[in-house]
Design a protein that fits this description.
The structure is a single chain. The chain is α+β, with helices and mostly antiparallel strands and 709 residues long. The chain has four domains: 233 residues, no CATH class; 121 residues, Roll (ph1033 like fold), CATH 3.10.590.10; 187 residues, Rossmann fold (3-Layer(aba) Sandwich), CATH 3.40.50; 129 residues, no CATH class. It has 27 helices and 26 strands. Strands 3, 6, 7, 8, 9, 10 and 11 form a seven-stranded mixed β-sheet that branches. The chain starts with 5 loop residues before the first helix and ends with a helix.
Length: 709
């Protein structure tokens, strides 16, 4: 047995973690920072009824699961190395991680998503149980607290006892599958339903039976003296890890036609050939010939294989029995990391599109059956699935979209992202699909009208292709298979500039409903429709982010479709004069200048008609541009024309904003109107003020300082 150096580290870490109950955001910040160092990290995004949001709460067992999941030990070591100084753990870093069970990567949380029924006391109850176990061991656990945590959605007995074992491995016994089987071979049967009282009795029986008389246990796995649950767990998790020397390695597909059988295969511990024995296809003949060569003790993987050579392993097991005549085998699942990456393509690596294939190369065997983890897929952005950035002109909405928000996507997502600008004539045919006229090469007289996908449909297809499937193929799968493929698909974004300028009802049509998070493919209330033009089945994948920008000064904003308002989250991008702090152009302070202008605009118009900092950012970023000539250009070419739009050529109000140096009253002498024409308002009209804009090139720095001086 190894030294199990993880035990003292985990014990002290659990003790230190007691003081972080009210500092959960800091724990999440730590995990997010570790995730940025290119080690696999927990999904830290909460699914709510309105979309995905950054997780803002965490329990202590989920924190432990960040490094007690099915990941490689080198990644586990990298995570705890960063946790150690942050939490002030003084114990030496572990040199091994032998002998403790881990939780599945896809079920690492000890509480459900918000939209899946998380209760207000779920996480507080988990913290209560954690404190009781760490401070007092089994004798200090309140049975009611244990039962409450046992009933948190997605927890259960095995997972909860595994977590208790992590934090106090010398006191609690994990009841995972391998440990149960190990106990069963020792003559100690674990009941299906175990409450706290039964768990204590089981723990005492194991201590008494194994600790006092090791010779009474006939199974060879118990030959080591039992001194703690950690010793037993180590023995259980060392059993049957390595294959016999004469083992062979096989991989079988998970599909029957268009139906995935993954869940049934896993539940029954049985795999079957989906072809009739007399079928004459190449795949059928190959599968029936190969199953006759499989023997008990071989290792077997159930796999999925799709476009772009993507290979996903759903389960790895040891073959128990084979019936070559009936075309099935039974297997015992193994607790191993599951491969998901580009399929090995060398000699002996397996013919992955076959129903049943043998794997013979050492590299592929190590990857598929030895648990070598591929690089983690990009973590999903923390943005809402449907987001609109809104604000006045010049507040950096498009800049933030391109340079900050898309930075949350992993490498490659921005290459697949689509950019489109809405305008009043933009249509459903441009966005989803429509007929496009084309002439035959060299014959302009022959015009065809093929159905072409629009930018939105293309973005959906790009997102779905990240699963290895086409849109049509994915829509044809069973719902559980579709959900499994989309769960960790890398993210893709479509960016819509000036989204409020399009006629939303005309552009989106009936597809506006499909944007809702719970209506997307693989989600609880998924919707798949038949497009009216191509008659193809269509749905919106959950790994597609739709991000728009909206200029609040645009007059069309008042007509923004209610359906769009309900389905998008809105993030304001206000002017930020503070970004111009200490930026001066010949004594003109730009922060004060912009603040003054916007204070006046808010009074004369509203918050939607302010002026953004982006107009001045060139001057802020490039000191060599800080000249009065450049400032004149900004005002003359951008700001004054914008103010003319705001006030519909009412230059007097522009004068209220900029002052007398910029807008001057024209003095007209003598008789102005035509003589001998009698008009009842002639005198009043003659007195009406007429304003003129000053020549911008004549203004000096004092004129600009006069705006706020």
């Amino acid at each position: 047995m190894s030294s199990q150096t993880w035990i003292p580290f985990f014990r002290e870490l659990a003790t230190k973690l007691l003081g972080w109950r009210d500092r959960q955001p800091e724990l999440l910040a730590l995990l997010r920072a570790i995730g940025k160092s290119r080690v696999p990290m927990l999904n830290l995004e909460d699914k709510t009824t309105t979309g995905a949001q950054p997780l803002d709460v965490i329990d202590p067992f989920t924190f432990f699961a960040a490094f007690c999941r099915t990941i490689r030990d080198d990644n586990r070591a990298a995570i705890v190395a960063q946790v150690k100084p942050y939490l002030g753990v003084e114990a030496a870093l572990p040199t091994d991680f032998d002998g403790f069970p881990v939780v599945d990567n896809q079920a690492s949380w000890f509480f459900p998503h918000s939209r899946d029924g998380r209760q207000p006391d779920d996480i507080p109850s988990l913290w209560d149980l954690f404190a009781q176990a760490v401070e007092h061991g089994p004798s200090g656990v309140n049975p009611a607290t244990f039962e409450r945590c046992l009933n948190v959605k997605g927890v259960g007995l095995a997972k909860l006892t595994i977590a208790l074992f992590w934090v106090r491995p010398d006191a609690f016994l994990p009841l995972d599958r391998l440990t149960r089987e190990h106990l069963d071979r020792a003559g100690i049967t674990v009941p299906t339903r175990v409450d706290w009282g039964a768990y204590i009795k089981l723990l005492e029986r194991v201590r008494t039976t194994v600790g006092s008389d090791p010779a009474a246990i006939s199974n060879a796995a118990f030959t080591a003296t039992f001194t703690s649950p950690a010793t037993l767990s180590h023995a259980a998790h060392q059993t049957d890890v390595d294959a016999p020397a004469n083992s062979h390695y096989w991989a079988g597909g998970h599909m029957y036609g268009n139906e995935s059988q993954v869940e049934r295969f896993k539940r029954e511990g049985r795999w079957e050939i989906g072809w009739a024995k007399d079928a004459q296809t190449r795949g059928a003949r190959g599968a029936w010939s190969r199953i006759a060569r499989i023997s008990p003790g071989d290792l077997f993987a159930i796999k999925g294989y799709g476009g772009r050579n993507n290979l996903r392993v759903y389960v790895v097991g040891r073959v128990k029995t084979v019936d070559a005549d009936k075309g099935f085998l039974t297997f015992e699942p193994q607790d191993r990391p599951l491969f998901r990456d580009k399929a090995p393509q060398g000699p002996g690596d397996g013919t992955w599109f076959e129903t049943l294939t043998e794997v013979t190369s050492e590299a592929a065997i190590s990857a598929i059956f030895g648990g070598e983890q591929p690089p983690p897929p990009p973590s999903h952005p923390t943005l809402p699935l449907n987001l609109i950035l809104y604000g006045p002109p010049g507040t950096g909405k498009t800049w933030r979209l391109r340079n900050e928000l898309l930075g949350e996507f992993g490498d490659g997502a921005t290459r697949a992202a689509s950019f489109v600008t809405f305008h009043p004539s933009f249509t459903y045919e441009d966005f989803v699909e429509g007929l496009r006229p084309e002439s035959d090469a060299g014959n302009d007289a022959v015009i065809r009208y093929p159905m072409r996908p629009g930018v939105f449909k293309q973005a959906c297809e790009a997102a779905i292709e990240r699963t290895g499937y086409s849109l049509a193929a994915l829509c044809a799968l069973a719902p559980d298979a579709r959900q499994a493929l989309l769960a960790d698909a890398p993210p893709v974004a479509i960016c819509i500039d000036e989204i409020n300028r399009g006629n939303v009802a005309r552009v989106f049509g009936e597809l506006i409903t499909l944007l809702e998070p719970d209506k997307r493919l693989g989600e609880e209330n998924e919707l798949i429709v038949t497009l009216p033009g191509s008659r193809e089945r269509f749905g919106v994948p959950p790994n597609l982010w739709v991000i728009g920008t909206m200029n609040t000064a645009d007059r069309s904003v008042v007509a923004l479709d209610t359906a769009l308002r309900r389905r998008f989250a809105f993030e304001e991008c206000p002017p930020r004069p503070e970004l111009l702090h200490d930026v001066e152009v010949e004594g003109v302070n730009l922060e004060t200048l912009l603040t003054t202008i916007n204070r006046r605009l808010e009074r004369l118009r509203d918050r939607d008609h302010l002026i953004g900092h982006a107009f001045f950012m060139d001057l802020a970023d490039n000191p060599e541009l800080r000249t009065i000539e450049r400032l004149r250009e900004v005002f003359g070419q951008q700001l004054i024309p914008l103010l003319q739009e705001y006030f519909y050529a009412d230059l007097g109000r522009i004068g209220l904003v900029l002052g007398p140096a910029f807008v001057q009253l024209e003095r007209l002498g003598g008789e102005l109107f035509a003589r001998r024409f009698d008009h009842d308002q002639r005198d009043d009209l003659a007195e009406r003020p007429v304003w003129r804009l000053a020549n911008i090139d004549d203004l000096d720095a004092a004129a600009f300082r006069g705006i706020y001086g």
